[in-house]
Design a protein that fits this description.
Keywords (chains A, B): DNA damage, DNA recombination, DNA repair, Metal-binding, Zinc, Zinc-finger
Family (chains A, B): Belongs to the RecR family.
Strand order of the largest sheet of chain A: 4-3-5-6
Helix content of chain A: 40-55%
CATH class of the largest domain in chain A: Alpha Beta
Protein name (chains A, B): Recombination protein RecR
Function (chains A, B): May play a role in DNA repair. It seems to be involved in an RecBC-independent recombinational process of DNA repair. It may act with RecF and RecO.
Largest interface: A-B, 54 and 54 residues
Oligomer: homodimer
Order of helices and strands of chain A: HHHEEHEHEHEHEH
Number of strands of chain A: 6
Largest sheet of chain A: 4 strands, parallel
CATH architecture of the largest domain in chain A: 3-Layer(aba) Sandwich
GO molecular function (chains A, B): DNA binding; zinc ion binding
Structural class of chain A: alpha/beta
């Protein structure tokens, strides 16, 4: 009577309970997904079971940058065409993927694994900040802080910038401004103020 | 650059592509789900991989009613406490689960696997209607048509009612009316008209 429709504790019920714990899924969508999987047994369910087992077996965080990959170091760290002189610091692997999708960055990454948070008890040591400092030296000339524009993200960026000051590396941040395609009327005041302050000659 | 962030064709990319094909998931939510799975390797990813493999291996349609279960006949058909004299006809296993959750039905089921549809080329033979007719006789005294209140669902219900006419079995349908907790102001005219037409003495 509770969550699912099939026999409680059965294979199908267990599958639905686990699917319901994925982000964006609830009991109802998990039931729909389970039925879809079973109705597409060969084209969807079997490949998904195999992909999940393979990812479970093989995907690990890169020991250098924290990206997820089946090899260590990861594909980004291994790529000789990338500029090892620039490291982009991000909170999560999802953020790393977002920057890769933009196609605008060809350096390396450093995934913190979150942001500083006094409430959650997350300090510098939980965040791979010591590992970032250990990467300083030799070819590294710039650290780009690409943290979320939230209070916690910016607090973390300030902290890291302070740690890196005077160590012979340039520390930069993402620009604030109007999102491409954004309508001014719908923008918050802070973004609009930042975009005005950072205005540039229109020829650029 | 296309769908996902990780190395194209890699284990993680494949997992995301497959997750994105689940109903209610798109590329973005599939990426989030994959990251969530990896960050909860032991508590979520491993159990989900195991549940998927087990369901793939064991869950099959019941040869009698079309319900999904790890055993054949299914748990509903096997239950001796259920009334074998009443069979509820539903379009899908999801509908069967919905009726089971209501707790208001203690008979058996017959899952059609869809509804009649000239456009999609779905006729009576695609729908387990012959299998329903084969269940007539002996203890069966009532067939409840619990099809969706859509045009296709009701066309299918009419067709089945015509097939069952004069075969010594009562054919009934779900009542139309005001949903429990429903506000009249938000109800469509058809439902309101049906609820008025089927009005009952208020003592009932």
């Amino acid at each position: 009577m509770a969550l699912a429709g099939p026999e409680p504790g059965g294979a199908l019920d267990r599958l639905i309970q686990l699917l319901a714990r994925l982000p964006g899924f609830g009991p109802r969508s998990a039931r729909r997904a389970a039925l879809q999987l079973i109705s597409r047994r060969e084209s969807l369910m079997a490949p998904l079971a195999a992909a999940l087992a393979e990812a479970l077996d093989k995907v690990r965080p890169c020991s250098r940058c924290g990206n997820l990959d089946t090899m260590d170091p990861c594909a980004v760290c291994r790529d000789p065409a990338r500029d090892a002189g620039v490291v982009c610091v991000v909170e999560s692997v999802g953020d790393l993927w977002a920057i890769e999708r933009s196609g605008a960055f060809r350096g390396l990454y450093h995934v913190l694994g979150g942001h500083l948070s006094a409430i959650d008890g997350i300090g510098p040591d939980e965040l791979r900040i010591p590992a970032l400092i250990a990467r300083l030296g030799a070819p590294l000339r710039e650290v780009v802080l690409a943290l979320n524009a939230t209070v916690d993200g910016q607090t973390t960026a300030h902290y890291i910038a302070a740690q890196l000051a005077g160590r012979g590396v340039a520390v930069t941040r993402l620009a604030h401004g109007v999102p491409v395609g954004g309508e001014l009327d719908y923008l918050d005041d802070g973004t609009l103020a930042a975009a005005l302050k950072a205005r540039r000659p229109s020829a650029e």
